[in-house]
Amino acid sequence: MFTPEGPTLRELAVQAMSSVEHGYDLLAPKFDHTPFRTSGRLLGSVAEALRPLGPFSDGLDLCCGTGAGTDVLTRLCRRSVTGLDFSAGMLDVARRNAPAGGPDVAWVRGDARALPFAPAFDLVVSFGAFGHFLPRELPGLFGQVHSVLRPGGRFAFPVLAPPRPSGLGYWTLLGFDTVMRVRNALWRPPFVMYYRAFRLGDVLAELGRAGFEVELRTLPEFGRRADGSPRARVVLARRTAGETAGDGPGQPAAGSVNS
Hints:
By secondary structure, this protein is α/β, with parallel strands linked by helices. The chain has helices at residues 9-16, 20-27, 40-50, 68-76, 88-97, 138-148, 168-186, 200-209, and strands at 56-62, 77-85, 104-109, 121-125, 149-160, 212-218, 232-239. The longest helix has 19 residues, at 168-186.
């Protein structure tokens, strides 16, 4: 499951018993050698789905980690790209991995639940981060994203079809979530990471309540399941173009933050 360059089981155990922030600080140097990193195939598929919707000027990679999604934005945005994460260790790796050339890239340490930006972006993406948010946090999270988008701006992220109960993947994810719930009931600080808590129906409803117009587009590279449903889709949430800066349920921040 892991490459020789990835973390050892002992290192993973230490990280899992830490807070989310400190755990990712510890994991950061080896994160790109784990299966937790979003695959290049998925990143490329989302980039191709977004390309016809551009051109985009300024993009934000929400919970950017080591910068895989930020790299996607540098191919889509003409003027600037910002990567935001609360782990200093992950941002250090992202900064070292940043591609040369292209739009200006800034790295900001911050919390996605309290974004330190004015409405300055026309594209926000996020890859693989939503398991770190409890369902009750989604309204505030989506409100924050809404508040930093310009009118007409888009919030995009991929979603994968959940595994069937008849498959090993279903029971693996169920077992992981169960272990994490027991761990968090017995140990502090908590480490929030649940694979099965981010339910598409609830997510679409909360995006609508936050003021987004939402559509789903199939990522055809991943094919379809036996019942004909797509294996992977991208959620495209659009801030209504008729709004003015500061409208909507999100709380606009006081200003922008430099890298």
